[in-house]
Amino acid sequence: MKRIFAATGAGLAAAVFLASAVAAAEITIGLGADVTSMDPHYHTLSPNNNIATHVFGTLIDQDEMQKLKPGLAESWRIIDDSTWEFKLRRGVKFHDGSDFTADDVVATLARVPAVPNSPAAFTIYTKSIAGVSVVDPHTMIVKTAGPYPLLPTDLSNIFIISQKQAKAATEDFNAGKAMNGTGPFKFASWARGDRINLVRNDGYWGPKPAWDKVTFKLITNDPSRVAALLAGDLNAIEIVPTADMAKLKTNKDINIFRVVSNRIIFFHLDTDRDVSPFVTDKQGKPLDRNPLKDLRVRKALSKALNRPGIVDRVMEGEAIPAGQLLPDGFYGTSPNLKPEAYDVEGARKLLAEAGYPQGFAITIHGPNNRYVNDEKIVQAAAQMFARIGVDAKVETMPSNVFFTRANKLEFSFMLVGWGSGTGEVSSPLRSLLATFDAARGMGTANRGRYSNKQMDALLDQALATVDDAKREKLLQQASEVAINNLGIIPLHYQVNSWATRKGVMYVPRTDENTLALEFKPRS
Amino acid sequence: MPVYFIRRMMQSVLVLFVMSLLVFVGVFAIGNPIDILISPEADQHEIERATRALGLDKPLWEQYGLFVVNALKGDLGRSFVFNIPAIDLILQRMPATMELAITATFMGVLLGIPLGMWAGLRPESFSGKLIMSGSILGFSLPTFWVGLMLIMIFAVFLGWLPSTGRGQTREFLGVHLSILTWDGLRHLAMPAFNLALFKLSLVIRLARAGTREAILQDYVKFARAKGVSSRRIIGVHVFKNIMIPIVTVLGLELGSTIAFAVVTETVFAWPGMGKLIIDSINLLDRPVIVAYLMVIVFMFIFINLVVDLLYSVLDPRVRISESKG
Fold first, then answer.
1. Taking a contact as any Cβ pair under 8 Å apart, which residues of chain B between 104 and 163 contact chain A?
2. Hey, what's the torsion of the CAs at A211, A216, A221, A225, to 10 degrees?
3. Does residue B302 or residue A87 have the better pLDDT?
4. What is the pLDDT of residues A34-79, one digit of tens each?
5. C-alpha span between B264 and B195 (Å, rounded)
6. In this structure, what are the phi and psi dihedrals at residue A101, rounded to the nearest 5 degrees?
7. Residues of B13-29 as b/e, b for ≥16 C-beta within 10 angstroms?
8. Most Cβ neighbours (<10 Å): which of A12, A498, B32, B229?
9. What pLDDT was estimated at residue B258?
10. In chain A, what are the domains?
11. Residues of chain B contacting residue A369, judged by C-beta atoms under 8 Å apart
12. Which regions of chain B are under pLDDT 50?
C-alpha cells in the first residue's frame, strides 16, 4: 500500500512538474557582460556575438566543444586547395517568412566590410575570401586567396542576414527592424543595459527550443547576479564567481555546470631585447644582459610556479593547470606537453647554471579587472618567484591602461590571457608566438616579441595545409617547439561555469557562450 | 537679475570648455581605445582601419578641434562602442537615473527632516539618541555592502521584492518611467532606499543641529512669549530657519547622486547613467565620457543656480545682487 502510495505520489509530482513545465516555458538568464549592439556585423565582441547566435544562423556552427558542425550549410568540401563548395540547407526560412538562399550569403559577405565606424570588424573572418559564386540557390563556391584551411572555422563567426537587410544600418538592427535571421529565437525587444527579450521561432530548422520566451538580464556585478539567482528572479546565470562557487555547490536548489574553457592564462615575457626595462639586479641596477633571453632562466621561472597551488587557493579550484596553449583534446594540442612540475630545487639549480645563483629582480605587470582573479594570481606568482631568489615586484592596473602599455612593449614580464575563438591552436600560435610581422598579420599580440624560425616555418606550413590530419601534426610540432622553448609560460586554463535553479539543465560550453537553446527543463 | 544670469551663463561656458579639454587630454593619456575594443585576433591592417574609422589616427589637437567644432553645432560625437550619438545614449539612460535619484532625495527629505527635528527637540531622549546612532550607521556603512544586504534580506530570504533590475516602464510625455507602474515601484524601492540612506543620515544631522540651535534663538522665545502655538513655532519658524543648510547640501548632493549613483546602479543592475559612465571609462569610449561630463557639469551649474535662487526665497536677508553676482 505504502509503495503504491509512493508511486502515485511520484506520478503526481511528475504530472505537476510537467504541467508547470508546459505553463512556464519561459526562462530568464543573467548575463555577466553588457551587450553593446544588435548589429551582427558591427563589433566582434563575445556578448554581442552570443545574442546574434540566438537570432541569426551561421553557415557552420560550433558545438559545445567548438567542433564544427553543419549549420545553414549542410555540407562543404574542398575542390582544390583554394576552392570550396558549400551545399546550403533547403527549406530554411527567415523570421519574416522568406526563403534562405545563396543570395543571402552573398549579401551578408558584402555587408560585413561595409559597416561604418566598426571598432572591431568581422572582416578578420572574411579577409581570406577572394570571390564567391552562386551555382544554384543552394550551392555556392568560395575561392580563397591561396590555400586557407581555416575558412570553415572563420565562417562559423559570420552571421547570415537576409538580402533584404543588405543595406540596413546599425540603427535598424538596434531598433529591431532589421533583426531578421534564421536562428532559433526571434528578436522581441532590447532595453539597453537592462534586458533583451526573445521569443521562439517555431519555424526553426533545428531542434525545437524548450522556451517560448527568453529574457536575458544584464547584471554585470557578480554578487548581484548570484543574489538574483538565489532570489529566484533568474533561472540561470553565466560566469559564476569563484568566491561563491563553494557555497552554491552545497545549495540543493542550484545546479552548477562547468567545463574547461578555451582561455589560457599565461605569462608573456620579453625574450627579445638585450636590456629589458623591468629586469634588474637585486639593487635595482640594470643588468648587462636580459636573463629572460636564457631558456634556463625561463625554465627556472616556470618550475618555480606551483600551478596546482594557484588553482587550488587563488582560483578556488575553478581552473586547470596548463601545459600548453589549449586544453588537451582541442585541435592541434600535443599529447606530449604536460604542465611543468613544481620544483624549487631544480629551479634554483637552473638559475645558478645560467649565472644567476643570487637571482635578480623583476616587476610583474598584470591587469586587475580583466581575467578571473588576475591580480591575486600575479601576487601569488611573485611570492613563488621569491622562493628561488628572484625578487618580484607586482604592479597591476585597469585593463584599459594595461593593454595600451603592453602593446607599446613597456613591460618585461606580464600576465595575459588568450581565448581561442576558433577552438584550435593556430589562433594562439600565430597571434602570441609567431615572429611579429605587421604586414603579414603575424604575432600581433606577441607582446614578448618571442621569435623562433623553426616554429614560424612549421606554423606557416600548417596554415597552408588543407588536409586536416597533416595540419594537426604540424600544429602539434609547432606547439611543442614554442612551449618547450617557453615563448610563454603557461599557468592555467580558466573553467567556464553556469549555475541554474533546480529543474533547468545546461550543456556547458568551452567558448563561454550562453545559449538559450541549450538550456533544457529536466525531463 | 538679468545681469546675474548672464554672468552665471558666461562662467558656465568657460567651465564647460575647460572641462572638455581636461577630459579629452585625460582620456587620451589613459590609453588607446583600439587596444581595448579590437578583437584580439585582429591583424595590423584591421587595427589601422579601426583607428581611422574612429578618427584616432589624427593628432590630439586636431581631434579636439574637430570635437569643439562639432560640439558647437550640437554634436558631441558618436560612441565608439555603441555607434550611436553619445548624447542620445546619455539621454536614453537619464530617466532611469533621474527617477532613482529623485526618489532617493525625496525619501531623504521626507524621512530625514522630521526625524532630525524630533531628535533636535528631544536630544536626551532614547528615541533621539536612537535616531542619531542610526544616522551614524547610515553614512558609515558602505553603499555597496548595504545594497547587497538589502538584496539578501528582502529578495533572497524574505522574497518580498525583486532582487535587481528596473521594472516595467510606462511612457509619460515621451519618457519611459518605471515609477508609474506597481512593478516599477517594487523594483525601485530597494535601490532608492540604498541611495537615500546617506542623504537621510545627512539630513537628520543637519536638521537636528539646526533645530537645536534655532530653539534657543530670540525669535523662538519671543514667539513663545507671544503665545504662538508650539506646533506653529516648530512647523513654520524653526522649519524655515533650518532649511538653508539643508537646501545647500541637498542641492549639491542631488547633483552627485545623479552623476555618481554608480555603486547603487551596479549593485542593483539599474540601467542608468552611472553604469554607463563606468563602462565607458573601462572601454575608453571617449565621446561618451566627454559628453557625459559635459552634461553633468551643465547640470551642476543649473542646480547651483536653483539653490541660489531658493536661498532668497527661504531667507529674505539673502538678496541676489545685480552688481556682483
1. 148, 151-152, 155-156, 159, 162-163
2. -20
3. A87
4. 898 999 999 988 999 999 999 999 999 999 988 999 999 999 999 9
5. 6
6. -135, 180
7. eeebeebbeebbeebbe
8. A498
9. 80
10. 56-168 (3.90.76.10), 263-493 (3.10.105.10)
11. 282
12. 322-325
Which range among A19-33, A306-320, B110-124 has the greatest average pLDDT? A306-320
Residue type, A282: K
* Cβ within 8 Å, pair A227-B266: no
CA B151, B156, B159, B165 dihedral sign is positive
Residue from the list B44, B54, B84 with its beta carbon closest to the beta carbon of A441: B44
More confident residue, A384 or B52: A384
Grid cell for residue A27: 526562462
Is the CB of residue A398 less than 8 Å away from at least one CB of chain B?
Answer: yes
Whether the predicted model's global pTM rises above the 0.90 cut:
no
Select the more confidently predicted residue: A134 or B234: A134
Q: Give chain B positions within 8 Å (CB) of A431.
A: 40-41
Identify the structural domains of chain B with CATH numbers, from first to last.
Answer: 1-81+285-325 (no CATH), 88-282 (1.10.3720.10)
Would you call A370 an interface residue with chain B, using a CB distance cutoff of 8 Å? Answer: no
- B54 contacts A232? CB cut-off 8 A: no
β-strand pairing of A488-501 with A519-521? unpaired
Q: Transcribe A405-433 into DSSP letters.
A: HHHTT--SEEEEEEE-TTSBTHHHIIIII
Q: Which three cell numbers stand for residue A41?
A: 556585423
Cell of B127: 528615541
User: What is the ipTM, given to two decimal places?
Assistant: 0.81
Q: Which helix (H) or strand (E) holds A260?
A: strand A254-269
pLDDT tens digit string along B214-236?
Answer: 888 888 888 888 888 888 888 88
Question: Which residues of chain A make contact with B92, given a CB cutoff of 8 A?
Answer: 192
